[in-house]
Amino acid sequence: MFEVLAERKIREAMERGELDNLSLKGQPIVREDLSHVPEELRMGYKILKNAGVLPEELELRREIVNIETLLDACRDEEERSGLKRRLTARRLRFDILMEKRRQGSGFHRYEGAIYRKLGL
Prior knowledge:
This protein is mainly α. The protein contains five helices and no strands. α3 runs antiparallel to α4.
């Protein structure tokens, strides 16, 4: 029933011309490979991505790079000291976040067997 209702609403919108000015009209839809995202998180991931929100680890990585760039150009010792504190805090948060991700991935359960198989 919902499928029929949705199709009817889409058809009516098309007839009224409400879908004529879409930014990607006439272009194929590119399917994203979300196999690396757990199934239960995919919808949330898509919503955040479409809203232009980065995952926390990417946002932290970008902040780290920006702070490093500022440090390279900074000549004021007091300002450098503040930037170094911010950089340390961001790196610590990033490391904690990545450690949580590794623990949740199940990799740690198989890490030894993987290294043995690779001869490491």
